[in-house]
Design a protein that fits this description.
The protein is α/β, with parallel strands linked by helices. Helices cover 37% and strands 17% of the residues. The radius of gyration is 18 Å and the shape is globular. Bound molecules: NADP nicotinamide-adenine-dinucleotide phosphate (NAP).
């Protein structure tokens, strides 16, 4: 995809002064190819990279950004602090390690990756706010926070939280959390937006894809970002996949197509549910 395909400004989402590109490049489990894949994604037009200390991809993200030739300040970089580092000192050390690994001075967005019930949320949110006030992160937010945890985090944070990053796709619509994010002026960032590929063989998704001359992934992702205040961070090893996932801003799904895809929620499928760290999720 030529560089002109990058997301036009209109395809960023605004929240509390942040302008987040609606589609980001996920970097979970990219392994040794991370730097090459990130550089290619940026050359293809991605301007939003989603990483985390836990993914082991931060070195590659930094290297990929430098190799892309695109100025760092034009790229939105998100990283996350694991639940093992929820204490203030550990949290700030983790941010420092992330920045050193990427060789960056700041990230655009810093998230608490998973809630940690063994540490008071006030301490972790305090550290998150401190990181922002130290200039290490332009914006802050949370990930995998339930309704109750999100309410508490918003109450505890003197700085605005710009996103709750959650599993969100046509099989798991998270209506209550989406409503809560909107109420707080926050973006819902959808992870696993293709349900780790499972949506791509769905008959309804395939029928709509065929009718529109698009791929199933483009339909699954268009459904996600056609919701106001929702961004998505798909991951793709295949460069053709990465390119097509970004190429979803020149068409839209009709109300009828959205309704057919909305009906897939009956499946209620959660693909990311690690027993050692997942909270008790809200009922659908
Ligand atoms: N905050 C959290 O706790 C959390 C948890 C999970 C994930 N995440 C973030 O979300 C990102 C994405 O989530 P995910 O990797 O779990 O799920 P995903 O993006 O829904 O699924 C990735 C899978 O979909 C395939 N795929 C992607 N685009 C495709 C296309 N156009 N055509 C065909 N297949 C396609 C990929 O295949 P190929 O690789 O073969 O291209 C890969 O197997 C992660 O990289 C990470 O950044 C965050």
């Amino acid at each position: 995809m030529p560089q002109t395909m990058q997301q036009p400004k209109a395809f960023t989402i605004s929240a509390h002064g942040a302008e987040m590109p609606a589609i980001g490049f996920g970097t979970l489990e990219l392994g040794e190819r991370a730097a090459m894949l990130v550089a290619n994604a940026i050359r293809d037009g991605y301007r939003h990279i989603d990483t985390a200390r836990k993914y082991g991809s931060e070195e590659g993200v930094g290297e990929g950004i430098r190799a892309s030739g695109v100025p760092r300040e034009e790229i939105w970089v998100t990283t996350k602090v694991t639940e093992d580092n929820a204490r203030e000192k550990d949290f700030l050390n983790s941010v420092d390690t992330s920045l050193k690994a990427m060789r960056l001075d700041y990230v655009d967005l810093l998230l608490i990756h998973w809630p940690q019930p063994k540490v008071p949320l006030a301490e972790t949110v305090g550290a998150l706010v401190k990181a922002k006030r130290m200039g290490l992160a332009r914006h802050i937010g949370v990930s995998n926070f339930t309704l109750a945890l999100l309410d508490e985090a918003v109450r505890l944070s003197p700085e605005p939280l710009v996103t709750n990053q959650l599993e969100f796709h046509a099989y798991l619509t998270q209506d209550k959390l989406l409503a809560a994010c909107r109420r707080y002026g926050m973006i819902l960032t959808a992870y696993s937006p293709t349900a780790r590929g499972q949506l791509l063989t769905d008959p309804v998704v395939n029928e709509i894809a065929k009718a529109k001359g698009r791929t199933p992934a483009q339909i699954a992702l268009r459904w996600v970002i056609q919701h106001p205040m929702v961004a998505a961070v798909p991951r793709a090893f295949e460069s053709t996949h990465a390119a097509e996932n970004l190429d979803i801003f020149d068409f839209s799904l009709s109300d009828e197509e959205m309704r057919r895809l909305d009906a897939l929620r009956a499946r209620n499928l959660r693909v990311v549910n690690p027993p050692e760290r997942a909270p008790v999720w809200d009922l659908p």
